[in-house]
Specification:
250 residues, 10 strands, alpha+beta, 2 domains, 4 helices, plasmid, disordered N terminus, SAF domain-containing protein, two-stranded antiparallel ribbon, six-stranded mixed beta sheet, 27% helix, Type Iii Antifreeze Protein Isoform Hplc 12
């Protein structure tokens, strides 16, 4: 009988040390499994879930349930090994400029713009076309005709430039889309309609990119913004590709 009690006691101590102790008075958070450099992609290989004592988690620390949602995003700063992750450390849509590459948040002067789709939003990826005077007239007429046919405002209608033209800049990461009141344009929660008309744009750019725009606009061209896709769609695709690659590697 004594032997059984001792064995049971040893078993309890073992179970407590290895299975129960971490569950009592602790919470699960996500940390950097290794140092993650600025702009480095978040993967299952460089983050992990651990238990920490309740009250020692950082403010807004990501809980375990956010682990999968972090895949494919970027570090907005250098994250040291062991650091708990929270929103300010994560660049979801690659919108933090990389100064080492000469990147910065660049505004596009309103008077440079010929047209911007009303559905363009922050985080979208867009191409820029240079539109000459004659093409401006043609596209404006096409937009008006298409708008009348669809019963929409011309600003909401996208008419692709002529097939022979090529964008002067590709894959611009849009960081801000604001209306004339300097408010971010987004969908209204009640109607899903835009909360304002696009009046100003900002993107992740370089001096070279801005100079390209200046060269064209100084010659009378206007800039036509055509968005390619939502960044969230690309992020989802890239995340699935990354997961597939990790599975194959295993």
């Amino acid at each position: 009988m004594v032997v059984l009690l001792v064995a049971a006691g040893v078993g309890f101590v073992f179970a407590f040390e290895f299975y129960i102790k971490d569950e009592i008075g602790t919470t699960e958070v996500i940390i950097a499994k290794e140092t993650i450099d600025f702009k480095e992609r978040i993967t299952a290989n460089n983050i992990e879930v651990i238990h920490v004592r309740q009250g020692t988690e950082v403010e807004n620390a990501y809980p375990k349930t956010h682990f999968e949602s972090l895949m494919g995003k970027y570090a907005s700063v250098k994250i040291e090994k062991g650091a708990q992750l929270y929103p300010e450390l994560i660049d979801t849509y690659d919108l933090v400029p990389d100064a080492s590459k000469g990147e910065f948040v660049a505004p596009i002067p309103t008077h440079w713009l010929f047209a911007v789709p009303g559905s363009l939003r922050r985080t979208f990826v867009a191409d820029i076309y240079a539109i000459g005077t004659e093409d401006q007239k043609i596209i404006s007429k096409l937009k008006e005709d298409a708008a009348k046919e669809a019963g929409k405002d011309p600003e909401e209608v996208v008419v692709e430039p002529t097939p022979t033209s090529e964008p002067i800049l590709k894959n611009l990461r849009i960081t801000s889309v604001k209306d004339s009141g300097n408010q971010e344009v987004k969908e209204s929660e009640e109607t899903n309609e835009a909360t304002g008309t696009v009046a100003a744009l900002e993107f992740i750019g370089t001096e070279e990119m801005l100079n390209t725009m200046k060269d064209y606009t100084s010659k009378g061209f206007k800039l036509y913004v055509v968005y390619k896709f939502e960044r969230s769609e690309q992020l989802a695709a890239e995340t699935e590709t990354a997961k597939a690659g990790e599975s194959n590697a295993e």
